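note to self: dont lose this again. the chain is below, predicted strucutre after it. 409 aa total, dont forget to put it in the shared folder this time
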Amino acid sequence: MVHPSLKYQSNIEHFVFIGTNFTKADIKTRSRFAITHATEAGAYQKAIQSGFPDFFLLSTCNRTEFYACAPLAVLKQLVSAQLGVSESDFNHYFYLLTGTDAVRHFFHVVSGLDSQILGDYEIVCQVKASLDEARKHNLVGTITDRVTNFAYQAQKKVKAHTNLSSGKYSVSYAAAELIFHESQSQSFRNILIVGTGDFGAAVARNLRHYFHSIPVAITNRTQEKAAEVAAQIQAEVIAFDDFKNHINHFDVVITTVALEHYLIQPEDVQGLNKQLFLDLSVPQAVHPDVRNINGVCLFSVDEVSAFHNELLQQRKFEIPRAEKIIDLYMNQLMEWQHVYNHSRIVLSYKEKVKNLIFDHPTRPIVGKALDHNKKLDKAFSSLIQEIREHGYAGCRMIETMNKLVLVEK
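---
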């Protein structure tokens, strides 16, 4: 196994990205490359075994993406092993980016510029959840921490100073709006939501906003989570192992689960009444052949996202303003990188100066050690601040060291 060098912990140019999304692959292809809860742990274990100092993955209905501080070739090996990606797949369906290109892509993702529904603000919560998972595996290093911090700042600025995220437009809202639109020509008596993760919970809340009194039932593999969401929207809970026995009694069925196989097969749907299925899952949870059953209308997540897309065209006019904000925070990130590089040099010399002073024959008595440490901290903090404001110069380092050593002598 090739282990990345420690040098990949310290420079943004070593930040790399490999991923696919809705611009590269349709829902069927994205389902092939999706990361489920069952396979996520394996990906993180491979990253640990590969020696990555920084690594996290992001898998949503729109994308499957891997970020790391490592040689791009090593990350490519991991992605290929985890997803079974061939060289042809990489060429057709995946982006491979390094350095500032990878960082800019991540900024676009966090700010909603790279969402299937432009300005979709739900992606921020999904990114934060992914980073939380990476932290559990101790895979969020200095570079990832700084990149994500500046990306969050940019996202907040974009949301506050542009109309990119104006209105209530996200996949979960688009789903609720589509059902509301269909209800104008077909009366819906009840709705079933399968899956109550963060995304499923958002779908449930938005659905209740549009349908105040219609009976809603919820099912989830973890019954406690289903009960929690049901209490929020006043819904009924159905046992996950039993929901298929009730599926034909519902006019609307929404799936938001992530499994490695189809959860609902054609034989599960009797076609006795008109039914609307919204499959918001990636991988797909409803077998595509269900749409061939008489009376059934099935929408994939891509079709849901495209619904009322014309109403979002005005958001495109906000893209140039959002890009300027991203440029601002990209520049700040690079300034941080400049100071960070030299700060590490400064701090290493700080230790050398400390050793010179305290190992000197006339070293201070123990009672004065605290004063000397304070003096060192102040001197080198001032040097780092000077680098931040005026740039790095070796002469400033030498001057600071000489002054301190001479004074202590």
